[in-house]
Amino acid sequence: MRAQDAATALFEQLTGRAPDGVWSAPGRVNLIGEHTDYNDGFVLPFAIPHRTYAAVGMREDGRIRVASTFADDAPVEIAVDELTAFFPTPTGEHPAVAEWAAYPLGVAWALQLAGAAGRGVDIAIASDVPVGAGLSSSAAIEGATASALNDLYNAGFDRTALARIGRRAENEAVGAPTGIMDQMASMLGEPDAAIFLDCRTLDANLVSVGIAEAGLEILILDTRVQHSHSTGGYRERRESCERGAAIMGVPALRDVSVGDLGRAEELMDDVTFRRVRHIVTENRRVLDTVTTLRERGARAIGDLLVASHASMRDDFEISVPELDTAVEAALSAGAIGARMTGGGFGGSAIALIERDSVQAVSDAVTAAFAASGFAPPHTFTVTPAAGARRDA
Ligand code: GLA
Fold first, then answer.
1. Does ligand 1 have an atom closer than 6 angstroms to the CB of 347?
2. How far is the CA of 196 from the centre of ligand 1 (A)?
3. Which of 105, 234, 263, 293 has the smallest set of CB atoms within 10 Å of its CB?
């Protein structure tokens, strides 16, 4: 069943009536610019065709109930008035509900804190965004829920405000210390375009990627190594970046340029320096990618993607053997460029490839995984797609 129909069917099963509407928001893939978002830097993601749907209807009793097709647990129900007492959780700890339910409930909570008058609702969620694949299934839940409640509560927030609300839910209700890239990509996505986002000002410019015109495809190589950003490595990387910025005497690593790296190396321990070098050079690569796409087209960005992967593998140390294997096998099979995408420690890589080599590159990656004793990867192509919207 299509995810939109599944969300509607679940809503009807839960309530015995039709929803007031159905809203959806997409997952995202990041072309380049990793871990730069929470350093006030630059990113270049695009929304993908995989979407999460929320079928939603008002209730008169001031209670909010969430159900989903991707978790076996029972629906979770709480009084709207109790949300403020329920969140936030102490940083890094999971709330007292199943993690999937903390996303929509956290969005309802964050909307109220932003000034919306919360009311009772039933929310039924279904998704075709793969979970744990580094494709922002969480931002898709946030975007679908935020769009639905914004309309039903007549809250009048714009897309950027809704992205901030989604991020607040993720940071404070779920406890994952992420940046704002995923929510902005999910809210602002447009067909055929990537979103060049300045994460300091939240200025967003659409950049035509021209993948199809160039006869190319973006192939997702989902390693199926699951990751979570609520714990461990992601948070540690963030702390290293904050330490590096403090040592350099700047508000954020956005303010450090490639020319400052010599001084940074003298001032910092080796690990902090390498974390800093990744962010500083990655910001540069995002700017170079945007210029290259505009002036020379998609075929010319391969080396920037490869350099980005090497920086994440060697300096930021967020890759895993499965991601490195996927990238190397794709390049050996003729990919123009390839890199891991998203937060790291698992999830997916992307490969920029000739349209007629989808099968050959997929087969090469699958064979390399088998030779290394890894479980088979999941591979599929994506094109830039529309952001959050009302579907019904
Ligand atoms: C995750 C986070 C984003 C971003 C990326 C890394 O997807 O949610 O905010 O930090 O990792 O670029």
1. no
2. 15
3. 263
Half-sphere exposure of 266 (CA within 13 A, CB side): 3
Residue linked to tokens 């170079």: 288
Beta strands in the chain (DSSP E): 21-30, 42-43, 45-58, 63-68, 76-79, 121-127, 193-198, 204-208, 216-222, 337-340, 348-354, 378-382, 389-390
For residues 368 and 338, the answer to whether their CB atoms sit within 8 Å is no
Per-residue model confidence as pLDDT tens digits over 193-210: 999 999 999 999 999 999
Residues 295-313 pLDDT 10s: 999 999 999 999 999 999 9
Residue 80 Cα to chain centre, angstroms: 27
List domains and CATH numbers for the chain: 3-206 (3.30.230.10)
Q: How far, in Å, is the centroid of ligand 1 from the Cα of 278?
A: 14
Check: CB of residue 229 under 8 Å from CB of residue 244: no
Cβ proximity of 303 and 97 under 8 Å: no
| First CA to last CA distance, the chain | 17
Instruction: Let me know: does 297 contact 216? Beta carbons within 8 Å.
Output: no
Name the DSSP letter for residue 190. Answer: B
CA 60–ligand 1 middle distance (angstroms): 37
> E-strand spans in 226-356?
337-340, 348-354
DSSP for residue 173 = I
Judge if the beta carbon of residue 182 lies within 6 A of ligand 1.
yes
Mutational test site, ligand 1, from 28, 35, 43, 180, max ligand atoms within 8 Å of CB? 35
The model's pTM: 0.97
Mean pLDDT calculated for residue range 216-239: 90
Ligand 1 pocket, mutate which of 28, 36, 37 (most atoms under 8 A from CB): 37
Q: Is 35 in the pocket of ligand 1 (CB under 6 A)?
A: yes
Q: What's the farthest any 2 CA atoms get from each other in the chain?
A: 67
More confident site: 88 or 389: 389
- Respond yes or no: is residue 182 known to be catalytic: yes
Nearest Cα residue to atom 1 of ligand 1? 343
Instruction: Determine the pLDDT at residue 237.
Output: 97
**Which is nearest to 240 in space by CA: 263, 270, 261, 260?**
270
